[in-house]
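Each record in this resource describes a single protein on a pair of labelled lines. An example record follows, reproduced without changes.
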Amino acid sequence: MRCRLSVLSVFATLSLVIAASCFTEAQAPAHQIIKFDAPGAGTGSGQGTIPFQILNDGTILGQYIDSGNVYHGFLRSSSGTIIKTFDAPGAGTGSGQGTFGGGANQTLTVVGYFSDSNGVYHSYIRTPGGSFTTFDDPSAGTGAGQGTFADNINKNGLIAGQYTDSNGVFHGFVRSTSGKFLTFDDPLAGTGAGQGTGPSGTSGLTDTGWIAGTYIDSNNVDHGFLRSPAGVFTSIDPMGTTSTLPIGLSANQTVGGVYVDSTGSIHGFTSLNGAITPFDAPNSVDTLANNINSQGTVAGGYYDSSFVEHGYIRSASGAFFELSVPGAAGTADNFVNTKGQITGIYVDSNNANHGFVYE
């Protein structure tokens, strides 16, 4: 697909059962899991439906990969009766090309990016009515694998993302509602190819303009950052980390993410006002985080000792519960909204991805 700084870990799996093994807290309330697939989604290995954001009204944003390995965007309505699929104008139709979702705000305005037929990336804004505006950062490179990647939009219409310049260096950007661009770089970021600065996807920008993300230094090491609306950077690195990857932040600037320790094990963390709290899902070998909502709830997945994947939700207070699907190859929870509705993916025996919503 493409090499970028922001990370959405795509593990997978699910079926119709919430494991009553709710980790630390009281039993999960009676809810249901609804599985779904976008029309046209492929059924081969690595193909299928990948939802990654659920808004407070229950609308789900995601992307699907068809049988030709081309990417497309989709919106699933809260009623579940309509899935709108979409392709940005100019999106390529070759394998690994197409339209990628970045994020949506509560008005259902979607931002994302697309790869053209030459493998160059461009960004788009899709209105609730389905109209597209495409754009490029003025400093973005025009070679294959380079370009502009819009990842976040807040309630005010501010867009945050990253671009790759002609030398292969990543830079963060903020785009105003009038179309003006502001480039930002963490002061400690490297300036070589494959290095630089980029915000986290989907939840890396708050409504008040705070941004969380990753920078890669001159030694090619990943670090986290928090950028204030005034442009002040704070580095985020849990103790003992060899690589830090924030996945977003909450409304009160709690940063969530993952880090890798010296043994290669992966752990989750949250960071608030300089205090970093590492966490591991119970019974996990590796714990990955996929997103954090405005309330500080983290959605993710973990691997157990048999290397089976399970989804989890971690509340801001540190309580866990698990979503497990018997017979599936693994579970990943990708987002939880403020009402407790969860969306994610599960993988079948063919390693194809399918979507689910827990409500």
Observations:
- The chain has a mean pLDDT of 91.
- The first strand starts at residue 33 and ends at 36.
- Residues 33-358 form a domain with the Methylamine Dehydrogenase; Chain H fold (CATH 2.130.10.10).
- The radius of gyration is 19 Å.
